[in-house]
Amino acid sequence: MRFLGLLLAMVAGLTGAGGAPAAKLNIIFVLTDDLGWTDLGCQGSQFYETPNIDRLAREGMRFTQAYSACTVCSPTRAALMTGKYPARLHLTDWIAGHVLPKAKLKVPDWQMHLPLAERTIAEALRAAGYATASIGKWHLGGSEFYPDRQGVDVNLAGCDRGQPPSYFSPYGIPTLSDGPKGEFLSDRLTDEALKFMEQNRAKPFFIYLPHYAVHTPLMGKPEVVAKYARKADPQNPQRNAKYAALIESVDDSIGRIRQKLDELQIADQTVIIFTSDNGGLILNNVTSNLPLRAGKGSQYEGGVRVPLCIKWPGVTQPGSVCDVPVITPDFYPTLLALAKLKPAKGQGIDGESIVPLLTQTGPLRRAAIYWHYPHYHPGGATPYGAIREGDWKLIEVFEDQHVELYNLKDDPGERADLASRLPKKAAQLRAQLVAWRKKVGAQMPSPNPDYNPQRGG
Predict the structure, then answer these.
(1) Is 262 among the domain residues?
(2) Which one is catalytic: 73, 159, 309, 322?
(3) Is 322 a catalytic residue?
(4) Which candidate in 70, 90, 139, 211 is catalytic?
(5) Structural domain contains residue 353
(6) Residues 161-204: pLDDT tens digits?
(7) Which of 95, 272, 319, 416 falls between 20 and 30 A from 159, CA-CA?
């Protein structure tokens, strides 16, 4: 009966009154920067207050095992735009990455922009009649690769910067005019999104809203920071008041967006997707991803497992929870499916549409998801690759070729390395990882002739 009800709802959504074609779905994609897996109330936080995002989760579907395509930002953003793994794009680090001339391995000559030849999700939707906007962080190359060259009608605040000079106006962002002194960036980006919604309410729209929050520099409205400072518990690893204030600014944004959708009477035809580009930053006690291990810039779950909530009105069952692993490249084919489109022939999409999960009508076809990071990061990563198949995750560390094997169902904190106890399983997963790298043309690091272990890279 559940399947039949969903089928009828989806069929009804294809036609309007009198059998006329229904309006295309609007899509609002909210991407936070560095938001950790446990940084929301609906994800278990007892410190951060996120009532609007929690409401989104209650009224839609919450994913417990959603993953970013990379442990840092730019590759994930490129994967979202193209549906391709960063390894295939050769865009495998944040732009422009860390330079460690004395490290053991030399990183490959990787791509530091999103090529214009790639067909972005914005280009695909615009060709189908959507009004398109990118409002917030871009970080996929210089001015010749800005969002307005990649399929968006309106680009506000998107540039080559990975973080804002300031969250208070004047912002110092070349593609965003300054507001009144003291205006807060998350509020301003939301204002621009609301304005775009009003201007395009009569046609389908795609709003990509990649907030700069919650990336450093940590700043917040003084009264909000003070609220969390009073609330902070020294025994709680989540206790940074400025970081909490940034999270609240994003939660406020979700609340205002939903209010505007109601005012414009288009909420029932608008899909909202909320997620993050990588795990939470734990350096300098910014946040904690416990029980997950480590954080941004790491090969472990804390670096790549992220929150994900999706509300598809009339389709996603309120309060539903999905435990199936999904990953950033999946959004491209999913958004195409929402718009009743298909990838261009020969486009080489790595992701898989998660519509069957959203409608609870079937499983995904693939067996595994992958990561490839041939770089170094202060968050703990040295060059590595990884595969997740079912409950199993294998990490291959390129410096010494050792592997680590974890059962994430029994050990989500990745404390018990089972590689030596289960060598056949480890060998099987490693072989799959190697085959995948060959398939996507992944670039590998090479021995560094200037390696100096005394210099530590």
Answers:
(1) yes
(2) 73
(3) no
(4) 139
(5) yes
(6) 999 999 999 999 999 999 999 999 999 999 999 999 999 999 99
(7) 272
